[in-house]
Amino acid sequence: MHQLQGFLTSHAPDGLLPWGAQEESAERFGLTLHQVEEAALAAGILPARYQRNGKTLSVEQQYKLFKSRVAVIGCGGLGGYILEELARLGVGDIVAVDFDVFEEHNLNRQLLSCPDEIGRLKVDAAAERVAKINPAVKFTAFSEAFATENGPVILEGVQVAVDALDSVGARLTLADICNELKLPFVHGAICGWYGQVATQYPGDAVVEKLYRSCTEDKGMEKIYGNPSFTPAVIASLQVAEVCKVLLGQGETLRRRVLYLNLLDMELEELQL
After folding, report:
1. pLDDT, mean over the chain
2. Rounded to an integer, what distance in angstroms lies between the CA atom of residue 198 and that of residue 179?
3. Who contacts 239 (Cβ-Cβ below 8 Å, separation ≥6)?
4. Which end of the chain is more exposed for a tag (fewer CB within 10 A), N or C?
């Protein structure tokens, strides 16, 4: 370990470690890229890929993100953008859950989809994408539906769960399990020009309050669909919430929901 730290320090005279030096370190010392990045951050050395985070996040905060494990439930419209942003942000351990495959109607908005991917499992495309974006990230894929039976196993070791689902029932199940496991949970939903974001902490009943009078499992998305921009906006807000929860920084959307009307460019906040 002493030799590794010496190598990393010598290749980061300005405090920034180039990607080539990370790859060389992994090969020279027989380590994974994840292990090299952890060693660099622990030593106060910032991988150069995160240098534009530097004015917003300290090296210590970057290290905290790297040591975090986040679960994204759903790899479709919201999930694809959430996974992309978490990997680029530097969250070091990501869990993705989705049983579905890509269909042609996904192509208008789902970041991970393309014509060649039709019929492919979404979690497989997610794993490939994250590996291309940031090979230092650990990625665990579950190609199954999230349910009461498998939820505790999927969320084992997770600090935050992220809702990228399109089913009311599955959302309520996720919220219930997060409460049981005492996990924070970031909710997001989209419908046409509209979306909403909220953060539920253990003991809260945010999702239950939002959906307790809902009679349709698929909600309004089934009627209005979604254009390309709505999931990108809501997913970004969800990732911002995840970042704040992990770092214990700023004010989250706890016990309140943020409604977005992108057609009239209006924001509304409702206390829960």
Report:
1. 95
2. 15
3. 82, 85, 86, 89
4. N
Give me the percent of the chain exceeding a pLDDT of 70.
Answer: 97
Contacts of 251-254 with CB under 8 Å at 24 or more apart are: 252/199, 253/197, 253/198, 253/199, 254/199, 254/200, 254/201, 254/204
- Is the pLDDT confidence value at 192 over 70? yes
CA-CA distance, 246 to 91, in Å (whole number)? 10
**Partners of 69 in the β-ladder:** 93
Read off the pLDDT of residues 17-72 as tens digits, 9 standing for 90 and up: 999 999 999 999 999 999 999 999 999 999 999 999 988 999 999 999 999 999 99
Residue 220: pLDDT band by 50, 70, 90 thresholds?
A: low
CB hemisphere CA count around 150 (13 angstroms): 12
- Supply the pLDDT for residue 211: 87
DSSP the chain: -HHHHHHHHHT-TTSEE-HHHHHHHHHHHT--HHHHHHHHHHTTPEEGGGGGGTTTS-HHHHHHHHT-EEEEE--SHHHHHHHHHHHHHT-SEEEEE---B--GGGTTT-TT--GGGTTSBHHHHHHHHHHHH-TTSEEEEE-S---TTTHHHHTTT-SEEEE--S-HHHHHHHHHHHHHHT--EEEEEEETTEEEEEEE-TT--HHHHHHTT---SSTTHHHH---SHHHHHHHHHHHHHHHHHHHT-S---BTEEEEEETTTTEEEEEE-
